[in-house]
Amino acid sequence: MSIYDLSVKSRDGKEVSLKEYEGKVLLIVNTATGCGFTPQYEGLERLYRKYKEQGFEILDFPCNQFGNQAPGNSDEIHEFCQLKYDTTFPQFAKIDVNGKNEDPLFTQLKKEKGSILGAAIKWNFTKFLVDKNGKVVERFAPTTEADAIDAKVAALL
User: Fold this and answer.
1) Which of 35, 59, 47, 43 lies closest to 123 in space, CA to CA?
2) What integer pLDDT is reported at residue 47 of this predicted model?
């Protein structure tokens, strides 16, 4: 199974096939608007603007599983990100990344790149770098800033 076989929900609840992103380098991130790592949106947007014309996409999945740090509905979260960080990369519906209601995308990502501590996502802003063929090439901890990922993205493009 490939991530391209999966679909996710857009902010407005419509099914989006990840096949739409085939042939692009992806950074898939579970995010939150009330987290100590929330300012990472700024670096993520910088990275996105730098490489989007070369076939790079950031897929943002708000998640409220860690300390209820992503309150609000999808529209409120999106508005916050646009107003505070001027984000332009795709943001999807709020999801679970662990547990019985875990989104199948994150099940697949964790299957391909579990961390040393195990496959579970430990916090918001865990990042998965996916190559043009849909293979997860690296998983980054929430503390990893976008600038530290820049060279890896460039190498895959």
Assistant:
1) 35
2) 98
* Domain ranges within the chain, ordered by starting residue: 24-139
Cα dist. 59→72, 90, 100, 127 in Å?
19, 5, 22, 10
Class of domain 24-139: alpha beta
Residue whose token pair is 């960080």: 85
Active-site pick, 35, 129, 146, 153: 35
| Known active-site residue 35 | yes
Mean pLDDT by runs of 10 across the 157 residues of the chain is 93 95 97 91 97 98 90 86 92 94 92 69 94 94 96 97
pTM: 0.94
Short-list 35, 107, 104, 105, CA closest to 64: 35
- The alpha carbon of 34 is separated from its chain's Cα centroid by a whole number of angstroms, namely 16
Q: Residues 139, 127: contact at Cβ < 8 Å?
A: yes
Say what the pLDDT of residue 120 is: 85
Q: How many CB atoms lie within 10 A of CB 12?
A: 10
